[in-house]
Design goal:
401 residues, alpha/beta, TIM Barrel, Sulfite Reductase Hemoprotein, domain 1, 8-stranded parallel β-sheet, elongated, binds iron/sulfur cluster
């Protein structure tokens, strides 16, 4: 059984985390929290981009007061991010937040941690023990020499002990590192050690594309091992981008239901009969605008396109000045090349409304024959790079011996 199915389930407001709950997406606002309207606008944008939970800094009294106005108007649960000042954690609880994140590296006094735990327990609010390699407890840094996976896990365990002394167990944990292999090792060690839900992230990942690649490398590796109950991409970018990336990653890993477009496109090659990059980006923009929750393929040629993308819900491939529209690999319409994106949009809408079987049944009578002809002509002109006919003959020959 995966670690995420065995973890203790907690609730951040109405969002369950752990115990087999759907992996949730988190992001963090970049506005000044005292700017209530600006922060709320960003919270709404993050929720719209796929964030299930939003974290907001609570770094001074003005921020805590801002939270009191933001939380009741937010469409998603709010977690207050606390560093250094435990009193701000108490203020955030009073403001009504649905979760706290404490950094054990900079709130170290046990009586302060325990005071927060008591209040959070009374209010039924969970706490994330948010260990970060960049701000590790000085004592642990000295003992371990550097921010090793063992040091990060030791920091989390120490904090959990303080919380347990107040009989506080509604905990999730993160052990973030900016070095991807260290991040992965830290979480693996943590998953072997505790049964609390884990919040995954590569800290300070940087701007895209590097930040995205680091985050995906670390987070996806662990998710595929069954580790991780909630995730955050920490990008140096508009946080909407990190919320969107987090949501997309979960959809691509089949950990969340598809709510948006999944566009696949061939990388193009010498066989391409159309500018794949241009068609793919035009199609992507228009399909995203249409908000259709389907997988769409844009393929450069009809020779290999429909076959290679036969798993896609719908796709288009180019050949001899025409666009071949296919559903689950079956060509349903052949249209002039300059109409292919319009036809794709039109058919995608119908597909979402009517379903695969109905749209395959409504295929143009001549589409399959036209597609086969175009394909054959191109193979004759360009050659059969896959040598399909010769291979079939060789296989039949071997089988007949
Ligand atoms: S689908 Fe056609 S154009 Fe695209 S990479 Fe494959 S062979 Fe090349």
């Amino acid at each position: 059984m995966d670690h995420r199915d065995r973890t203790r389930q907690i609730h951040v407001g109405r969002v369950p985390v752990g115990g087999g709950a759907p992996v949730s997406v988190q992001s963090m606002t970049t506005t000044k929290t005292a700017d209530v309207d600006g922060t709320l606008a960003q919270v709404y944008a993050l929720a719209g981009a796929g964030a299930d939970i939003v974290r907001i800094t609570c770094n001074d009294v003005g921020a805590a007061e801002g939270l009191a106005e933001i939380v009741p108007r937010s469409p998603v649960p709010i977690i207050a991010d606390i560093h250094y000042q435990y009193r701000l954690a108490l203020a955030a609880l009073e403001a009504g937040v649905q979760g706290l994140r404490l950094n054990p590296g900079n709130i170290r006094k046990p009586h302060q941690i325990r005071a927060v735990a008591r209040d959070a327990k009374d209010r039924g609010i969970p706490i994330r023990v948010g260990v970060n390699a960049g701000s590790l407890d000085r004592e642990l840094m000295a003992r371990y020499g550097s921010a090793t996976p063992e040091a990060l896990v030791a920091s989390a365990l120490k904090e959990i002990e303080y919380l347990a002394e107040e009989d506080f167990h509604d905990i999730k944990i993160s052990v973030k590192h900016s070095h991807v292999p260290s991040m992965v090792e830290s979480y693996r060690l943590l998953a072997d050690t505790v049964g609390f839900p884990l919040h995954l992230g590569v800290t300070e990942a940087g701007p895209p594309p590097g930040g995205l690649i680091k985050s995906v490398a670390g987070i996806a590796t662990l998710l595929l091992e069954g580790i991780g109950d909630t995730i955050r991409f920490s990008l140096t970018a508009d946080p909407v981008e990190e919320a969107r990336a987090g949501r997309q990653l979960l959809e691509y890993l089949n950990l969340r239901e598809r709510t948006g477009l999944d566009l696949i496109a061939c990388p193009s090659c010498g066989r391409a009969e159309v500018d794949v990059l241009e068609v793919a980006s035009t199609a992507q923009a228009r399909l995203e605008e249409a908000k259709l929750p389907i997988q769409v393929a844009v393929m450069g040629c009809v020779v290999n396109g429909p076959g290679e993308a036969r798993e896609a819900d719908i796709g288009i491939a180019a050949g001899r000045g025409r666009g071949h529209l296919f559903i689950k690999g079956k060509v349903v319409r052949v249209v002039p090349e300059n109409e292919m994106v319009d036809a794709l949009l039109d058919e995608a809408r119908k597909l979402v409304a009517e379903g695969v079987e109905a749209r395959i049944a409504a295929a143009d009578d001549l589409a399959a024959d036209l597609a086969a002809q175009d394909r054959q002509v191109l193979i004759e002109i360009q050659g059969d790079a896959n040598r399909a006919a010769a291979r079939r003959a060789a296989v039949a020959d071997v089988a007949a011996r």
